[in-house]
Amino acid sequence: MGYLDSAFDLSGTVAVVTGGGSGMGRASSEVLAEAGASVVVGDIDTSRADETVAAITAAGGTAKARRVDVSQKASVDALVDFAVAEFGRLDAMCNVAGVPHSAEVVDVTEEDLDRLIAINLKGTFFGCQAAMRVMVPQGSGSIVNVASSIIDLPFQGYSVYGMTKAAVTMLSRVLAAEGGPHGIRVNTLAPGSTDSAFIDRHRFNEAGEPDPERLERYLAAMRATSPLGLMGEPIDQAYLILYLVSPASRFATGNTFRANGGNARPW
């Protein structure tokens, strides 16, 4: 086995991916499985998680689906316990699950605030806690927390979303310091504009009908933020997650990695 083969080989490892039923989570689950990992696909939508598992097994990989509500600590603990019970260990915890939100600060409801904190921040925190309880006695592991490129620029209307993602970034840095002595690496992925379920609200008009023109206007605006003139796809983030949980990134921890097309200006 050559350098590249061994650097990205996940044979014999076990990965948990939250939000694995669609978008970046699904792409990541499929890529990690193709690299040899046994993957537990966690999602609040069990039908979507089952679809991801079906795609992985059809391609010759190993995967199991499990319902998880990341806003509930007990549910996240059960997801990790399931992975260990099924496969005997946990090598990669990918906290991908999250929800978008946009509103001016004065228009944010308390319900919106609580929901974003519960899913985007507490959900990631619970995932880190559950993983650390397994990885510390194991003496190894990699945790990837998904933030957003919104942490780099103050986008109007994205206060709560940006706030939760900035907090995730700091959580990763602190956890990297705590996990390092135990052989555990923790990094943050801060994706740029990616064509996934996160942009579904731009696919429809106010009446809930498909609106291709509205979607194209949004996609054009996103492409314009990149010097490459591109809109990201879930696979672009999945490849970076593969790097972060593989031996290739053995010297990377406490860092924030970006696949964002060089995004350098607000949306």
Automatic annotation (TrEMBL):
EC supergroup of this enzyme: oxidoreductase
InterPro entries registered for this protein in UniProt: NAD(P)-bd_dom_sf, Sc_DH/Rdtase_CS, SDR_fam
Pfam hit, one: adh_short_C2
Record carries keyword Oxidoreductase: yes
PROSITE patterns linked: ADH_SHORT
EC number(s) on file: 1.-.-.-
GO MF annotations, alphabetized: oxidoreductase activity
CDD domains given in the database record: SDR_c (cd05233)
Gene3D superfamilies with a match to the protein in the record: NAD(P)-binding Rossmann-like Domain
Keywords of the record: Oxidoreductase
SUPFAM superfamilies: NAD(P)-binding Rossmann-fold domains
Family (UniProt): Belongs to the short-chain dehydrogenases/reductases (SDR) family.
PANTHER family: 3-OXOACYL-[ACYL-CARRIER-PROTEIN] REDUCTASE FABG (PTHR42760:SF115), SHORT-CHAIN DEHYDROGENASES/REDUCTASES FAMILY MEMBER (PTHR42760)
Name by which UniProt lists this protein: SDR family oxidoreductase
Species whose genome carries this gene: Phytohabitans maris
